[in-house]
Amino acid sequence: MGILGTIISGFSALCMGQPRINMKEGRKLITLVVNLLVGISQFFTITFLFVGWFWSIAWGGLLIIHSMQYREALQQRRQEAVATAAIEALTKDSILHRRDVKTLVKSHKKSKK
Which helix (H) or strand (E) holds 93? Predict the structure, then answer.
């Protein structure tokens, strides 16, 4: 079952997810090839004292750890974006408010003259 999961994770990388390979082009294709090769290697090593079975369990654990780290990084980026947007909104609002006050003061001075 774990061997099939490794192969399926390679195909699912084509549709969704973030590949772990640091290349500009062909990241998803290389992820597919790596997962296919690992899955096939796990299948052929299953006859040697279940090495492939243990290997597939370890590989699945690594995939889960990677997805948890990706989720945490995504949440942190969202929090930073919200904080930045809030600071920008407050800053822009105060700048606009200052301009309004300046125009009111100028118009008040002109009306007194």
Answer: helix 51-112
